[in-house]
Amino acid sequence: MRLIVVWVIEWWRCRWRCQCRDAKETVFLGLNSVFGRKVLAMATATYPPPPPYYKLYKDYLQDPKSAPEPPPPIEGTYICYGGNYTTDDILPSLEDQGVRQLYPKGPNIDFKKELRSLNRELQLHILELADILVERPSQYARRVEDISLIFKNLHHLLNSLRPHQARATLIHILELQIQRRKQAVEDIKRRREEAQRLLKESIGTLEDTGASFVLK
Predict the structure, then answer these.
(1) 103 vs 5: CA distance, rounded Å
(2) b/e per residue, 94-119, with b = 16+ CB within 10 A?
(3) CA distance linking residue 183 with residue 189, whole number of Å
(4) Of 35, 107, 126, 132, which sits 20 to 30 A from 161 (CA to CA)?
(5) By the 8 A CB rule, do 127 and 5 touch?
(6) Spatial CA neighbour of 39 closest among 85, 75, 47, 48
(7) Are 42 and 81 in contact (CB under 8 A)?
(8) pLDDT by residue for the chain (216 residues), tens digit each?
């Protein structure tokens, strides 16, 4: 049964990657656009070629005014390396993304409870998918969609915790810095006391040596 569950998870991941790739091409470039496919291939290549507009700057050294002005700052959504990004640093809701929300709405969400609930539901759906693949292979699509919906809700809940995680990480970093500075101050005090002790011993030794010379 464990092997079946692992196989189902890997199969779902492969299918999800294909769906994401096809959706990306459909939304941003169009499946029937040859130019769009070429642009996406260039943008997502391991070593992408320089963008074609570099030719506009070929005479920049001889005549800087011949080059176009820098583009204005981007606002809103934009495409970078084949992915869709936005300048608004906010987490869109599931409804804005067209995804059904499986956990309660509102600001007072028990994240631990909802994550555990979705995780249990995900396990049950994966086991049911394994049974369907054995008994009714042609009816797997609905269960895969349910699993995809659960994963999207899980990811959205986890992303909702990112600001809290960032604050906790920053607090931890600041506490470590304060601790290191306190240790550095204590080390300086300890070395200062040691230097003062050595200085007093040296002065005492010199005074004793000078007194002995005077007596002689």
Answers:
(1) 25
(2) beeeebeebbeeeeeeeeeebbeebe
(3) 10
(4) 126
(5) yes
(6) 48
(7) no
(8) 444 444 444 544 544 444 444 444 333 444 345 555 666 676 667 777 777 777 888 888 888 888 888 888 888 888 777 777 788 777 878 887 888 888 888 878 888 899 999 999 999 999 999 988 888 888 888 889 999 999 999 999 999 989 899 999 999 999 999 999 999 999 999 999 999 999 988 888 887 776 565 555
- How big, in percent rounded to 5, are the helix, strand and coil portions of the chain? 70, 5, 25
CA distance 186 to 189: 5
Alpha carbons 81 and 141: distance in angstroms, whole number: 31
How far is residue 45 from each of residues 23, 82, 200, measured CA to CA in Å?
18, 10, 70
Cα–Cα distance, 90 to 111 (Å, whole number): 19
> How far from each other are the two terminal CA atoms of the chain, in whole angstroms?
99
Q: Is the CB of residue 30 less than 8 Å from the CB of residue 155?
A: no
DSSP-assigned beta bridge partners for residue 86? 77
Tokens of 95: 């409804």
The upper half-sphere exposure of residue 66, i.e. CA atoms within 13 Å in the direction of its Cβ, equals 10
